[in-house]
Amino acid sequence: MYDIIVKKRDGGELTKEEIYFFVDGYTKGDIPDYQASALTMAIYFQGMTQEETATLTQAMVDSGETIDLSAIKGHKVDKHSTGGVGDKVTFIVGPLVASVGVPVAKMSGRGLGHTGGTLDKLESIKGLEIEMTKDQFIHNVNTHKLAVAGQTGNLAPADKKLYALRDVTGTVDSLPLIAGSIMSKKLASGADGIVLDVKTGSGAFMKTLEDSKNLAQEMVNIGNNLGRQTVAVISDMNQPLGFEVGNANEIKEAAEILQGKNVEDLRELSLELASHMTVLAEVFTSYEEAYEALAKNLENGKAFQSLRNLVEAQNGDVSMIDNLDNLPKAKYKIDVKAEKSGYVAAIDAESIGIAAMYLGAGRATKDDEINHGVGITLNKKIGDWVEEGEALVVLQSDDEDSQASITKVLDAYSIAEEKVEKPTLIYTVIK
Ligand code: URA
Q1: Could you say which of 28, 209, 281, 307 has the lowest number of CB atoms within 10 Å?
Q2: pLDDT tens digits for range 228-243
Q3: If we measure between CA atoms, which residue out of 162, 160, 173, 142 comes closest to residue 44?
Q4: What CATH number belongs to 1-47?
């Protein structure tokens, strides 16, 4: 291990044997944390070649179980977002893609900190179960083309251990390490094709377009190197996506899009990602053809029917999405009013996420309970005019006071005198 650290420190390229020696030894506990931290720091400064990154990713996949989706008929395509506030795209894209016959076998996690988790949001629907046997999961995907389950099995344990170490040793922000970490989990969950939604902007992991492009390119290279077709869409996270943040709030907004409502940024991004997924699955031959067919399924109710099928198959109360007023609700509605007139120039997405977390929509620590009915509705987004005293957002809260959230929301909004353009939604696509 000493030789491997010194080789990387001095800018050398690690061999497959050396990378596997490290990943296997660290996972088993034979290599101590101090040597693993020295190597990750050396990687942080020296980087990795494309081949080294692909090998590291494969070694992390091989450190644990992989999910075998071969019992599911058809070309399986997965979607992954690098994380954002108000990102309920999975609940739109999953049913939408399933509605044209592409199987979606989605394994998701819970939320921590300012971004919510897919499973927590789904559990806003009474009775909906996310734990199921592998056979049930595969049966549901074969029958309805769609299932969402909690992650089972021991996927990429090397990544779990390394990520925890990177978190406390200043080595999270390394492109090959982030790309390898995300892709190892995606590859272990078995899809044939992967569409990545790489967020960019103030509320994203990567704040600049250049860093986001580099991360996207790195992940696409890994996927393609390891035999999975991978496409990355770089999309905006300079403000929350759509108007709703929270659990029931986000399910409601996603269901509305599936019922044909046009919330511009959310509908556009969903159609963009779903189009790439269905082209990868070879159901359509071009992006344009896919987009047109998918947009039609938003209007004609087929995509919404796919969501109903999912809820029913996972024992959820369908009446909650048929009539969205039946979703859990908070006790109070509190307007957070603008302190001056002007144009909304910026909305710090992370602060909005934290304000929602303070209300109980998210977890500050792993063991916190989620309150599904609380959340935030944005009335104003970047470029909108607001009058002094007008509500910027409405909090749905069980606490009449909610001062910490109000302060956080007011901090999140910047109001300017000059007109501000709406941010670009989709910057580029990397294949
Ligand atoms: N998310 C991950 O899963 N891994 C990283 O390294 C960073 C973000």
Answers
A1: 28
A2: 999 999 999 999 999 9
A3: 173
A4: 1.20.970.10
Kindly state if the Cβ of 163 falls inside 6 Å of ligand 1.
yes
Ligand 1 centroid, distance to 57 Cα (angstroms):
12
From the CA atom positions of the chain, what is the Rg in Å?
Answer: 22
pLDDT of 96-141, one tens digit each? 999 999 999 998 877 777 777 899 999 999 999 999 888 999 999 9
Query: In whole angstroms, how far apart are CA 270 and each of 100, 243, 429?
Result: 14, 15, 14
Q: Can you read off the two tokens belonging to residue 130? A: 């996310």
Helix (H, G, I), strand (E, B) or coil at 42: helix
From ligand 1's centre to the CA of 210, what distance in Å? Answer: 18
Give me the interface pTM, i.e. the ipTM. Answer: 0.96
Write out residues in the chain with pLDDT < 70, as ranges: none
pLDDT at 115: 73
Check: CB of residue 156 under 8 Å from CB of residue 63: yes
Residues tagged active-site:
80, 159, 166, 181, 185
182 in ligand 1 pocket by Cβ < 6 Å? Answer: yes
